Every structure is written in structure tokens, then in C-alpha cells.
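queue> holo job accepted (N-(5'-phosphopyridoxyl)-D-alanine)
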Amino acid sequence: MGATIYVNGRITGEDEAVVPVLDHGFLFGEGVYEVMRTYGRKPFLYGRHMDRMRRSAAMIDLAVPFTAEYLLGEIEKTADRFYEAQGEAGAGMEMYVRVLLTRGVGAINYDVRSCPAPTVVIIVKPQVDPPAEAYEQGVRVILVPVVRNHPNSINPLIKSNNLLNNALAWQEAKRQGGFEAIMRNYRGEISECSQSNLFVVKDGRVTTPPLEAGLLAGITRAFVFECGESAAVPVREATLHDADLFGADEVFLTSTTREIVPIVRIDERTVGTGTPGPVTRQLLAEFRRRTPEGL
Ligand code: PDD
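queue> job finished
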């Protein structure tokens, strides 16, 4: 079943959803986005996603033309249409909700004054979880040569529609049969994955690179710190290098649509015992225990 899409207030099926080619989001990748998923048909950690969207938009000097409350109403309208279109197949289905905000239509130049009105898009489609084997057996990822954007180039803190850096990294990992791509920053330190954040576990302590390493401030990443606190698992930020990855007892990735996925192989090397480890399992259990609390 396809997506239901809202474009500046018009809600249609995916075949009819269109944005003008002179939209600077299309021409230049000028825009920001958020991906949320629902639990119980409600976007999880909605306020945090909206705060991040506001921060991303500010970093490209783009005004957000809605309040979080107003946008939630528009998401709910789109969701209603989505479930209508799904019919019986929608029972028990959770949603993937992608909100895009672009500079809007203007002249073919970089002058922001030529774009009087931003474009707002909401894409609602079924949330597809990673396969059960990913959680039970863990996944293999690839440490790719594609370098994460320098913070003075396109700052990875901006959740930008300009995703070429991420796409090239992921495509390289895919070519090598990996589930995800791990990227280093311009200093050669570990930063994050193409669509997720990265954590390592050593001697029971969990570590993830600091924001200063050039990465997205993942909503799930922050939530994992909270899960660690409630599960009495120490989670901290520290600079990581290749050796920390390959010498780790456990490694896992986090994202909105994937929660916490254990990594058991990096390139051709096995991580720890080659099976999802106890700390990763404990954090995932705590994460899932807490998800309804965020509603
Ligand atoms: N990706 N890093 C990058 C580069 C990402 O694109 C994402 C999210 C994350 C994880 O952030 P969060 O926990 O807030 O989802 C980290 C989303 C899911 C996507 O682009 O589909």
C-alpha cells in the first residue's frame, strides 16, 4: 500500500503528490526534514522532533511557518486519510511520518528573497520495522571511505534534505552487502552511520561520539542516554577511533525507525562474540518498555 501525502494543505495519494520544479528544495536541496514513527498511532517524542526541526531550519535561515500544535493537526488529518486508504489492512499498522520543509518556489538563484513561501510536505506511509533477524542475530555494517560532511560545510547537525553525503555512504555499504554504513569525520574519528547513530560497549560501559565529532543529534541517541540511566547502564560521549570499534565487546546503532539494532560484524571482522550482547539487549528492552510513556 502506498503513501498518503500532504503538500501545502492538499492531501492525496503518492501518485498525485507534486512539488514544482522551481522549488529550491528540488533545485538545490534547500530544506530540512524530520522522520518520526508512531506507537499507538501517535508520533513518538513529537515535541523533540519539532524542536530539532526548528533548530535545523534556523541553521539554514529558514522560518518555520507553523507551530508544533498546528502541524500535529495537519499530520493527524493526513493520518486519517492514510488509514482510510489502507482499509482493513491498516489494522494494527503503525506509521512512518516524514515532514519536509523547503525554501519554496523561487528564481533559479540562491537569493532567499526570491522564495516568499516555504513548502510543507507530510509523507505518511506504513512503518516497516527491520526484520526480526536483525534484532535476534545482529547485522553486518561497512566502515566506508565516504567522509561525513565537515561541520563548516553542511553541518551534520542540520537534518537537511541535502542527503548526498548520506546516500553515497549507504550505497557503498549496500554494494558490499552491509545493512548500514559507518562514516568517519574529516579528522578520521568515528562519527555516525548514514541514517543512524552509533554506540560501542566495552567492559559494560556504553560510549557514543560527541556531537562535536560532526553528527546528527539523534532523538533516539538522546533517549538511549535516558534508558541507560533508568537501567543503571553507564552511557557517555567520547571520541572513538577504528580501534574502539574493532575492540568493542558490543556495537549497536540507533534511529527512530530502527530503535536499537545490534551490530555483530564490521566489514569482515566479528564484533565481540558475534551475537547481540547483553548490554545491547538490556537497553533495547528498556527502550521498548519506555516507548508508550512518550505518547
Ligand atoms: N534518520 N544520523 C543520521 C544521519 C540520520 O539520518 C538519522 C535519522 C539518525 C538518527 O536520528 P533519530 O534517532 O532522530 O532518528 C542519525 C532518519 C530515521 C531517516 O533519515 O530516515
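queue> The radius of gyration is 19 Å.
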